[in-house]
Structures are given as structure tokens and as C-alpha cells.
From TrEMBL:
It comes from Odocoileus virginianus. Pfam families: PAS_9, PDE8A_N, PDEase_I. The lineage of its organism: Eukaryota, Metazoa, Chordata, Craniata, Vertebrata. PANTHER family: CYCLIC NUCLEOTIDE PHOSPHODIESTERASE. InterPro entries: HD/PDEase_dom (IPR003607), PAS (IPR000014), PAS-like_dom_sf (IPR035965), PDE8-like_REC_N (IPR057304), PDEase (IPR023088), PDEase_catalytic_dom (IPR002073), PDEase_catalytic_dom_sf (IPR036971), PDEase_CS (IPR023174). This is Phosphodiesterase. Residues 404-778 form the PDEase domain.
Length: 787
């Protein structure tokens, strides 16, 4: 492998081009290095992030003009600097030598005592090139090697001379039944068992490769035979410093073990049956029984396997597993191993949940995944966080002052004029209603969809219900308040008006969606599920740490609604209709829980988007180039122009049967459920798709809520769920970029392909570019300039 690049790049950071700076410039020219000179810290950082220099030399002689240590820390904070050599130029002093620990702590590789002589500078560069730089280039090359090991289908383990596990790739961890990183640093508990153990040890201790089969114990205690090659690696002093083991699991032996277990089980079962039929046979000679067992062992083996294969198993997934098992019998070893990994994946219960790893270079994404997608089971005993459920605003009817659209103040009417459009500004309505937008917007939207007529409830009851629900949102929350609820209600109503949705959902589905949007965050405490679980809150205990808030929102909404006839919008419904509506509402509210985010999106893509594309292809829709990569959610967007929009059939569909097939596919109860889940999920997190000014406001509000949670976690000594949301250090632009990248883009690509939302996607693209173009500054200085 070639370690040395064609030309080393050097970055000089000097506030003025003095003799020292010129000395390094001449030295770079003499050595044939590419040299760049900058005078300011910000310029230097931007230049490094653009060109990724091998050597950076920073003037550390005058801290008033350049904070060299701060610049070094900024550069080291980027993962791109992992293999960069950074030198600090310090003054030559006559007094006692000072300690270099502060330089090392700041991230400097070494210091250079000022000497402007071009030859001295040249010698320094040569020492760096053949010393630190070459070592860093070797380390950089190791990253590609480890990337290859990580993706290798062979199970690979590296141990030290003392048999401490230094590295195990994912294939090895999977083979042995361990989680990622669980083996690192552990000592091999048991020497592998081999018939020729002495031969194994003699071979590897003589610095030769050994290959053969040995038996090791997996995490669950099972013994497994492995075909392994052990390679000793010679290191310093000519001694063996590491052992590399390349392993292939012997599937045939495992199958033999399983068959043997089956035979033993059958023999035991038949013996027990014989005892029940004739207890006098219990006195039979043991040798006779053993002999009989041996005689029929081959027959039992055949009959056992036959009975297993003849079992009727109704679950589709078990049928798939049986087919794969049968295919393995006649497959070559590489195919058998690949199918083993397929079976391992299929046996999980979370078939649509992606197995994603943390992004080491994106702490914001890590924290968002940890805080929103994890189940939050990191409690500390003795801590408790109690919600305000004992102070719920279930006001008596006499205190409720109904409002009507007939006597709404003019400023509120003006604020709701554009509520049917996506660019409707919910913050104007919030201001006009003195932070009570839900009641007014709810009345107008529910009237537009005929909710009272469907529920058979008087408008007075609906008004009282909306007021009661809004009263139970916490106005003190920066984000999760009734304005957020009204915003989600508006987005839900907007999606329900799209032609594809109108063709697919029933009136009951529409009413369920509108009610679910209204109640989906009622009594939200402004803290995440993970926080409540860590704090041991009453709700976390009540709901067993699972979707704590979402269960609470749904349960409380029905408790409040059915607890007062004057607010009970369901009281005139037929029982069956009410139960169907109730289940639909609950399902949609629970869908807003983020731990199932990727599962919901993947199901929608695989069960709605892709079959829809296939049906449209059958209807003579021209094949798009993107159809060859249907595994990508983003590929769905290119199909939007070929989709059906409402009752307008694509002219490329030959007959009405194609339209009927599509409608039939979409309108099954299961698929309508998936569509409703996706609808409310997109409505719930649509902030990045709003106009820029609204997007920025929502970002400020959710960040403030997360800041407050982090403050309380530190104050109460709880686990900090999202450490990047520290109000003193957080970069809001970076958090938004990570959120959009990780959660929003794929979901809205899929939703846009189904519904056709060019306006939203335009806003999403513009907002992402806006956040991407910002520096690391506080949000209050990031507002768009006034027009």
C-alpha cells in the first residue's frame, strides 16, 4: 500500500508575514510542499476544512493577536483533523524552560522554538515528513483496512499476545452472539478445544499459520465448531504481538447437532409413552432399552424430520423461514452462510426497524436518536418526576365560556383567512388569540369537514370540548403547547384535502385524523419520554416505560371527553362506530412516538409506495430510470408525475380496471392505517417544511424546550439524554441539519411521492440550504434580514 501522497500540504497561520513566516514559506518551496498562508483564525479554519492539510503551523508567540490554542482546539474538534500534524511556534526565552502540557492539551503535536532560518525550517519539515506525518499516513490507511474488515463476511478476531481481544468485526460478534463492542478488551475466557491442541499451540508459537477445526463456546453457552485460520503477527522485538483469527462457522455440524437433539427428544417421548401403556415394562433391562433405541435411531431421525416438515404453520414469516431452511440443504457454503444471516434478521420482531449505528461525526444526530428514538430505559433509582396530571384543567361547565365563529373578533378572522393554504401563519393566529389558537382554528376546520354532523353532536358541545382540550395544553411550554397542536391540526387538514388522500380515506378516517391531531400532545410536560423514564415518573411506571407520553395523551383525552356530558363529542355515536373511531384515534396518536419512526416509514415505502409503482407500471406507465433503484425512498419522488391524482386517472392507464386495482390496494383497512400513521407523523414534524420564518421560530422553541430539559437533568443529577442541547454550547443550525437529514428527508420524500407536495418540498430544500449556510452562532442572530 502506498502511504505517501504526491505532495504534502502545509497551512501557515501567522498574523503578519515576518521572518519566521517567510522562513517556513521558503522551506516549503525547497521541500516541494504546497503552502498556504492565512492571517485570521476563522479563515484558517475554513481553509483547513476545505483542503485538509497534512501539516498546520500556528504562530503561538502573541496571544493578543491570535489565540493559537483556541484555534488548535477548533481544528481538533473536527474529525477531519484526526491525522493532521499541528505545530505551535513559540518564542525563544532565556529563562527557565516552560512545560508543554498546555500545548498538548490544546491539541498541538509538538512545538517549534522560533528560528527564522530557512534551513532550520526546512530541517523541521523534513523531520515532520519522515516522522509524525508518515506515521499519521499509516494510521489514515488503517481506516480503509478496518472498513474492509467491518464489511467482510468472514468472522475476524484480533487478540493480543496475552489473549486480550483487541478487535472483533460484526460478522464475528454475530457468529458468537455478542452485541457491538461487547467483546473488546475482554480476555479469552477459554482456550479453544481441538483434538490436536498441542499441534495448534506449537504451530502458532513458532510464528506459523494454523488452520483447522476447533470448538468454542458462544455467549449463550452453546458450543459451536469453527473452521479457523490463526495467523500470528510479528511486532516489536521480533516477538508475536497479535493473533488474527479468520473464522468460518461449520453449519453442517450445527445441523447434525440439531438432528441429534431431535432424535433424543423423540426417543424420550416414545419411552415415556411406553411406560404409560405398560408400567410392567419399567423393569426392562437398561441394556435392552439402549439396544432398541440404537436399532431404531435412523428410523426415528427420518420420522422426526418428516413430522417437522409436515406441520401446518400459518404465520407467513415461518413459511419463509422454512423455505430458506430447505434451500440451505443443497447450497454451497457461501450461500448457506448468507442465508444464515438472513434467517437471523427474519427472526427478529422488528422487521421494519433499521439497524442503524451512531454517527460518530455527528453528535447532534446521535443525541436526537438517543433522545427521541431510544426507549429511554436509563433510570436512576430514587428520583421522581411527577406530571401535573393532578391539576388537570377539567373545569366545570359554568367556567367555560363558549365562543362561536359568528362573533369572532376581526383580527382573529383576518389571521385565519388563509387557513386552507400551506403558508398559513399559525403564529399570527397565536398572537391574535392571546395563545388560544386551537379553539378558533379547531372550530373552523371541524366545520369545514362536517365533524359535528358526523359525530351527531351540537356545535356547543364541540366548542366546549375544544376549550377543555386547549386548557390542558401547557402554555408555559416553549414548543409543546396548544399552538403546536393547532399547527399539526392545520397540516392534517391540508393533507386531508389532497386528492390522493380524499380518494383513499373514509369520513371516519378524516374525523379520526382531525381529533388525533388536536389531542396528540395534550398535557405534554415539555420533557421527553427518556427523561420521564430516567426520572422514574408516575406515568413511566404506569405505562411500563413504553410510549409513556403518547399513551398518556390518548388516555387523558378520552378520560376528559367522556367525563363530562357537556364536552362529550362522542355521546351520540353508535357503539360500533365509536369503537372504530376510538381505535383509529389511539393508533394515530401512538404513531407520533419516535421510537417507531423508521419502522412506520419503512412500512409505508414497502407496503404503499412500491406496490403502487408496480400497479402503475402494469397500467402502461412508462418505466422511469429510477425504477431500477426502488430500494431508495428518494427514488419515489421521480414517480410522482406518474401517480394518480384523485379522480383524475392518468391518461397512460389503459382501462378503468387499473384505477380500480389501485383504489382497491390503497383502501384496505391495513393500508389506510399505514397512510393515516404517515399523515399524522408528517403533520407532527412538518416544521422544516414551513416557510423559513416559521421554520426558524419552531426551531427556536423546540431548542429552548430541550435546553430546559438538559438544565433540569444536570440540576437533578439525571442522565443527560441529549448533551448537545446545552444552551451554552449548542449549535441550533447543526441540530436542524441533523434532524432534517436523519428524520425528515426520507419521510417527506415518501409522503411527497404519494400525495404530491411540491410546495412543502420547495420549503424543505430552501430551509435546509439556509441552515447549512450558517455559522456556529446563536439562533437569535440567525433571523432572516428584514425585507
Amino acid at each position: 500500500m502506498r502511504f505517501h501522497p504526491d505532495q504534502l500540504q502545509v497551512l501557515l497561520v501567522f498574523t503578519k508575514e515576518d521572518n519566521q513566516c517567510n522562513g517556513f514559506c521558503r522551506a516549503c518551496e525547497k521541500a516541494g510542499f504546497m503552502c498556504t498562508v492565512t492571517k485570521e483564525a476563522q479563515t484558517a479554519l475554513a481553509c483547513f476544512l476545505d483542503k485538509h492539510h497534512d501539516i498546520i503551523i500556528i504562530d503561538h508567540r502573541n496571544s493578543r493577536h491570535l489565540d493559537a490554542e483556541a484555534l488548535c482546539r477548533s481544528i481538533r474538534s473536527s474529525k477531519l483533523s484526526e491525522n493532521t500534524v499541528i505545530i505551535g511556534v513559540v518564542r525563544r526565552v532565556d529563562r527557565e524552560e516552560s512545560c508543554v502540557m498546555s500545548l498538548i492539551a490544546a491539541g498541538f503535536t509538538r512545538r517549534y522554538i522560533e528560528n527564522p532560518s530557512p534551513m532550520a525550517c526546512y530541517n523541521e519539515l523534513l523531520q515532520l515528513e519522515f516522522g509524525e506525518v508518515r506515521s499519521q499516513l499509516k494510521l489514515r490507511a488503517c481506516n480503509s483496512m478496518f472498513a474492509a474488515l467491518e464489511k467482510s463476511q468472514e468472522a475476524i478476531e484480533i487478540t493480543s499476545e496475552d489473549h486480550i481481544i483487541q478487535y472483533a468485526n460484526p460478522a464475528f460478534e454475530t457468529t458468537m452472539g455478542y452485541q457491538s463492542g461487547e467483546l473488546i478488551g475482554k480476555e479469552i475466557a477459554e482456550v479453544p478445544i481441538n483434538e490436536k491442541k498441542a499441534d495448534l499451540l506449537d504451530t502458532i508459537n513458532s510464528c506459523k499459520e494454523w488452520q483447522g477445526i476447533y470448538s468454542v463456546r458462544k455467549k449463550n453457552g452453546d458450543n459451536v465448531q469453527q473452521n479457523v485460520k490463526i495467523i500470528p503477527v510479528i511486532g516489536q522485538g521480533g516477538k508475536i504481538r497479535h493473533y488474527v483469527s479468520i473464522i468460518r462457522v461449520c453449519n453442517g455440524n450445527n445441523k447434525a447437532e440439531k438432528i441429534a437433539e431431535s432424535v433424543q427428544t423423540d426417543s424420550y417421548t416414545d419411552n415415556q409413552s411406553g411406560k404409560h401403556k405398560d408400567r410392567r415394562k419399567s423393569s426392562l433391562d437398561v441394556k435392552t432399552v439402549a439396544s432398541r433405541t440404537n436399532e431404531v435411531s435412523s428410523q426415528r431421525r427420518h420420522s422426526s424430520m418428516a413430522r417437522i416438515h409436515s406441520m401446518t404453520i400459518e404465520a407467513p414469516i415461518t413459511k419463509v423461514i422454512n423455505i430458506i431452511n430447505a434451500a440451505q440443504e443443497s447450497s454451497p457454503m457461501p450461500v448457506t452462510e448468507a442465508l444464515d444471516r438472513v434467517l437471523e434478521i427474519l427472526r427478529t420482531t422488528e422487521l421494519y426497524s433499521p439497524q442503524f449505528g451512531a454517527k460518530d461525526d455527528d453528535p447532534h444526530a446521535n443525541d436526537l436518536v438517543g433522545g427521541l428514538v431510544s426507549d429511554g430505559l436509563r433510570r436512576l433509582s430514587g428520583n421522581e418526576y411527577v406530571l401535573s396530571t393532578k391539576n388537570l384543567q377539567q373545569a366545570p361547565s359554568s367556567s367555560i365560556v363558549p365562543v362561536s365563529l359568528h362573533d369572532v373578533p376581526s383580527q382573529i378572522t383576518r389571521a385565519m383567512e388563509k387557513e386552507e393554504y400551506w403558508d398559513f401563519n399559525i403564529f399570527e393566529l397565536e398572537a391574535a388569540t392571546h395563545k388560544r389558537p386551537l379553539i378558533y382554528l379547531g372550530l373552523k376546520v371541524f366545520a369545514r369537514f362536517g365533524v359535528c354532523e358526523f359525530l351527531k353532536c351540537p356545535e356547543m358541545t364541540l366548542r366546549s370540548w375544544l376549550q377543555m382540550i386547549e386548557a390542558n395544553y401547557h402554555a408555559s411550554n416553549p414548543y409543546h403547547n396548544s399552538t403546536h397542536s393547532a399547527d399539526v391540526l392545520h397540516a392534517t387538514a391540508y393533507f386531508l384535502c389532497k386528492e390522493r388522500i380524499k380518494q383513499t380515506l373514509d369520513p371516519l378516517d378524516e374525523v379520526a385524523a382531525l381529533i388525533a391531531a388536536t389531542i396528540h400532545d395534550v398535557d405534554h410536560p415539555g420533557r421527553t419520554n427518556s427523561f420521564l423514564c430516567n426520572a422514574g415518573s408516575e406515568l413511566a411506571i404506569l405505562y411500563n416505560d413504553m410510549a409513556v407520553l403518547e399513551h398518556h395523551h390518548a388516555a387523558l383525552a378520552f378520560q376528559l371527553t367522556t367525563g363530562d356530558d357537556k364536552c362529550n363529542i362522542f355521546k351520540n355515536m353508535e357503539r360500533n362506530d365509536y369503537q372504530t373511531l376510538r381505535q383509529g384515534i389511539i393508533d394515530m396518536v401512538l404513531a407520533t412516538e419516535m421510537t417507531k419512526h423508521f419502522e412506520h416509514v419503512n412500512k409505508f415505502v414497502n407496503i404503499i409506495n412500491k406496490p403502487l409503482v408496480a400497479l402503475e407500471e402494469d397500467g402502461q406507465v412508462p418505466r422511469s430510470p429510477s425504477l431500477s433503484i426502488l430500494g431508495s425512498v428518494g427514488a419515489m419522488r421521480s414517480l410522482t408525475s406518474h401517480c394518480l391524482l384523485g379522480n383524475r386517472t392518468s391518461p397512460l392507464l389503459e382501462t378503468d380496471k387499473d384505477q380500480e386495482a389501485i383504489n382497491t390496494m390503497l383502501r384496505t383497512p391495513e393500508n389506510r392505517t399505514l397512510i393515516k400513521r404517515m399523515l399524522i407523523k408528517c403533520a407532527d414534524v412538518s416544521n422544516p417544511c414551513r416557510p423559513l420564518e416559521q421554520c426558524i421560530e419552531w426551531a427556536a422553541r423546540i431548542s429552548e424546550e430541550y435546553f430546559s430539559q438538559t438544565d433540569e437533568e444536570k440540576q437533578r443529577d439525571l442522565p443527560v439524554v441529549m448533551p448537545v442541547f446545552d444552551r451554552n454550547t449548542c449549535s441550533i443550525p447543526k441540530s436542524q441539519i441533523s434532524f432534517i437529514d436523519y428524520f425528515i428527508t426520507d419521510m417527506f420524500d415518501a409522503w411527497d411521492a404519494f400525495v404530491d407536495l411540491p410546495e412543502l418540498m420547495h420549503h424543505l430544500d430552501n430551509n435546509f440550504k439556509y441552515w447549512k449556510g450558517l455559522d456556529d452562532m446563536k439562533l437569535r442572530s440567525l433571523r432572516p434580514p428584514p425585507e
